[in-house]
Design brief:
The protein has 22 helices and four strands. The chain is an all-alpha fold. The protein is elongated, with a radius of gyration of 29 Å. The structure holds ligand L6ULR443. The site of the ligand C[C@H](NC(=O)[C@@H](N)CCCCN)C(=O)O has 12 residues, from helix 2, helix 8, helix 19 and helix 20. It is a multi-pass membrane protein.
């Protein structure tokens, strides 16, 4: 049945709907990354980075196990019904997450991310299984590419829309962050609606194909019975039968017959996993380490780019003329009278520090500074006293800081956040543009295993550059986008070539579960590395990402070796490989005479 769906024109509508359905998932998955700085301002805490990492970790922890069962249920219950269940979960999760942000509660926000995660990853599994049913052979990677492209548009739109909503759309009872998350919930509602549209289309196609198959079966068996009657009619009956066989064979494309047997009647068991071969396990390992330096990197990209390029720490020699007074704003004694200069040299002609792209210097201590009576200020507290001011004390949502005492710092922080958020979109922007083209090429030239080892090579360069050089981040981020797009273009369409057709859902579930092990653990490692390095991401976190990419190169090399030994399926154009073609011989006819 699966193979025959790939012959129906309506598959393109299914693809379009499946892609639109994923926008909500991708938009909301990356909400925390794009709202990182706004959340830090809304809910300042010394544990902020840990809570922030947990938003990704709790999404992934249940998914270390669940997609495996999700994939199994996809194989058992059918992918379309699973689309509705999982889309409902992402909507419910996003609602709880947005509610949590509205009441500024970490426990609710984390609970929302758990529920969202239960739906999000399983939805990816169900959707991959739908695509593998409707698209085969020379259209499979193209379908995955188009899908990833539109999904990633969701990530890119989120990077622009969410910070803008958070900045500009705060109402009295709804802070900006929660407004941005409620917009996400609206988009998830749209995804659920789209999932509901796919189900009847899939059902109608399944029924139509079942009817056609039954009609063909009835016709051929009645002709066979007639043919067995003997007598002079045999020759003409036989030629009618040949005709039917030819028409039927034409209906199933050659690649469909080779790659996708009808799986409806075959029993599917979780224990089928033990039959998954080395190629599947290498693909899974590659997915773990290579995605480990793509998705977690994106979660921290805003902070990494701020620290590296747009909000660099000023040198310790750069100090305020009056370190115990406000640096800029309505409460500064006189902004021009409290400049920052290197080494405390305030003589005429010494230039200001720290300069463009650096965080402005803020007061080192404050003694009972009050907003009382200053027009244009509505401060959170009546007076502010700090023996030592640290960056986490500066709450730019409070007028005291943003308008009164560290205006230059808050303005520069807001500008740096906007720049980091748009620059960090580069990889996903590239993925949105390149994925369909790469999918089309992979379907035509193969070399899946080769590409799966070249992409992490590029990632090694990207993360070494980000970790150890200080120039513009544009070139490495373009590299990250190209490498990620190449890798995704070959990884996901390779899965159906590594297992039997009946286990494709289970295989997608398992590889997603393994991927989520990395997505759960890696953000925690990154935040620990940051804490251990005095709150700085660089270079340690980038060393970690480089290590993941290097492991990807190694696994990629093994993938090529084992693929070559097993007939070169992954590197072949059609995913059949030398050995399988030889084994299977010509396409199996529907019946033998
Ligand atoms: C296609 C691939 N998908 C995944 O990696 C998912 N397991 C995670 C998607 C995150 C949004 N829910 C990709 O995005 O490259």
């Amino acid at each position: 049945m699966a193979s025959q769906k790939s012959q129906l024109t309506v598959r393109w509508l299914v693809l379009l709907l499946a892609c639109i359905m994923m926008i909500g998932n991708y938009y909301c998955y990356d909400n925390p990354a794009s709202l990182h700085n706004s959340m830090q301002t809304l809910m300042p805490s010394t544990n902020f980075e840990t809570y922030y990492s947990l938003l990704y970790t709790v999404y992934s922890i249940p998914n270390i196990v669940l997609p495996f069962f999700g994939g199994f249920f996809v194989d058992k219950l059918g992918a379309p019904i699973c689309l509705i269940i999982f889309s409902s979960l992402i909507l419910a999760g996003q609602i709880v997450f947005a509610f949590g942000a509205s009441v500024e509660s970490w426990p609710f926000m984390l609970m929302g991310r758990v529920i969202f995660g239960l739906g999000g990853e399983n939805l990816t599994v169900a959707q991959s299984a739908v695509l593998a049913q409707w698209f085969v052979g020379k259209e499979l990677a193209l379908a995955f590419g188009i899908n990833l492209s539109i999904s990633r548009l969701g990530s890119v739109i989120n990077n622009y829309v969410s910070p803008a909503v958070a900045d500009d759309l705060a109402f009295s009872d709804f802070n900006g962050v929660s407004m941005a998350l409620w917009v996400g919930a609206l988009i998830c509602g749209g995804s659920l609606f789209t999932a509901f549209m796919i189900v009847p289309i899939d059902k109608a196609a399944t029924k139509r194909l079942k009817d056609t198959t039954k009609f063909n079966d009835d016709l051929t068996s009645s002709l066979l019975e007639d043919g067995e009657d003997g007598g002079g009619n045999n020759r003409s009956k036989a030629s009618s039968f040949d005709g039917i066989r030819a028409v039927s064979a034409e209906r199933m494309s050659t690649s469909a017959m080779l790659l996708h047997e009808d799986i409806d009647e075959e029993e599917i068991r979780l224990t089928d996993v033990k039959n998954f071969g080395v190629i599947f396990w290498l693909l899974s390992l590659s997915c773990l380490v290579v995605y480990g330096c793509v998705l977690p990197f994106n979660s921290f990209a805003s902070g990494i780019l701020s620290e590296r390029n747009y909000f660099k720490a000023p040198s310790s020699s750069c100090v305020l003329m009056n370190p115990g007074e406000c640096s800029s704003g309505l409460l500064a004694v006189n902004a021009t009278k409290n400049p920052a200069r290197d080494d405390g040299d305030f003589s005429e002609g010494v230039s200001n520090c720290p300069g463009d792209d650096f965080a402005p210097v803020f007061p080192t201590s404050l003694d009972s500074v009050t907003c009382n009576g200053v027009s244009g200020l509505s401060c959170d507290k009546s007076s502010y006293t700090f023996s030592t001011v640290t960056s986490s004390d500066i709450d730019c949502d409070d007028d005291f800081w943003s308008k009164g005492c560290a205006k230059n710092y808050c303005d520069a922080y807001s500008d740096a956040t906007k720049t980091s958020d748009s620059v960090m979109s580069i990889p996903y922007f590239i993925s949105a543009g390149l994925s369909p083209l790469l999918g089309f090429l992979v379907d035509r030239i193969g070399y899946r295993a080769v590409v799966a080892s070249l992409a992490p090579c590029m990632l090694v360069w990207v993360h070494l550059t980000l970790g150890f050089e200080s120039g513009s981040p544009i070139a490495p981020l373009i590299g990250q986008g190209v490498a990620y797009s190449l890798f995704a273009a070959v990884l996901w369409p390779s899965v159906p070539f590594s297992v039997e057709a009946k286990s494709v859902g289970t295989a997608y579930g398992l590889i997603t579960a393994i991927q989520n092990f990395g997505l759960a653990v890696f953000p925690l490692i990154v935040s620990q590395l940051k804490s251990a390095n005095g709150g700085l991401y660089l270079p340690n976190c980038e060393v970690f990402f480089t290590g993941c990419a290097a492991a990807g190169v190694l696994v990629g090399a093994l993938l090529n070796i084992f693929d070559a030994r097993r007939g070169g399926k992954l590197n072949s154009i059609d995913g059949k490989g030398r050995k399988e073609v030889a084994d299977r011989g010509p396409p199996t006819p529907l019946m033998t005479t």
